[in-house]
Amino acid sequence: MSFEVAGKAYDRFMGRYSRPLAGQLTDWLDIADGQRALDVGCGPGAWTEHLVDRLGADRVSAIDPSAPFVEAARARFPGVDVRGGAAEALPYGDDSFDVSGACLVVHFMADPVAGIAEMSRVTRPGGWVGATVWDLAGGREPMAPLWQVMRELDPSHPGERGLQGGAAGQLEEIFDRAGLEDVKGVELAVTVTHPTFEEWWEPYLHSVGPVGEAIAALDDAALERLREGCRQRLGPGPFDITAVAFAARGRA
């Protein structure tokens, strides 16, 4: 899955959920002053921001395969070492960091076991490696209301239910296969209040991620049916959406 969209478009789409989730990941990985941290699949910087606040820009590195996201992160965090690249081939030496993490990234890795193994390689022995993925299989992701209506209109649409790491126990299995030690899993919940239906709906129209690409493929009539189905389900607003992510951590 490629995310060749503007950083602002992604941030409007997912940042309202990923920023508070990234804060919980920061606390769960026991990130403390003086450490060096790596944000893998940083996007426009939801987790990078928390790391910079906790450690300072000069202690943080970030990497993402999307050129627009790298550009956005560099502009947003001028003191952070932001590079272009993939999780499966990290351009850092062994034991370069005290902690590394991938917030909402594993399910888009071409080879998640290789990606987590690379994160372990660049993390010092005993340091935490962590990751989060929404509960895609259980329908508890932020996009769940839209995917539910999409499936009502087209039952054959796969949605994101089959993506790797998005079902209970899968992240821990990936970490085990990558050779991490002391692997633990937990669920992290985020609740976002949307003031209006339009505020919730509009970010989906910018072709961000699988759901954005699915919407972009609809003709005008199908798009209107989807919009109206979502509006009937959610109401005019305000309304809350609670999303749940699986998180895993293990020691390098």
TrEMBL record:
Record GO biological process: methylation
The question of whether Hydrolase is a record keyword is answered with no
Alphabetically sorted, this entry's keywords are: Methyltransferase, Transferase
In its UniProt record, a GO molecular function of this protein is: S-adenosylmethionine-dependent methyltransferase activity
Task: Show where the Methyltransferase type domain sits.
Answer: 38-129
**Top-rank lineage group of the source organism:** Bacteria
A Pfam family of the record is Methyltransf_11
CDD domains on file: AdoMet_MTases
The answer to whether keyword Methyltransferase applies is yes
Check the record and name the InterPro entries matching this protein: Methyltransf_11 (IPR013216), Methyltransf_Superfamily (IPR050508), SAM-dependent_MTases_sf (IPR029063)
State what protein this is by name.
Class I SAM-dependent methyltransferase
Species lineage: Bacteria, Bacillati, Actinomycetota, Actinomycetes, Propionibacteriales
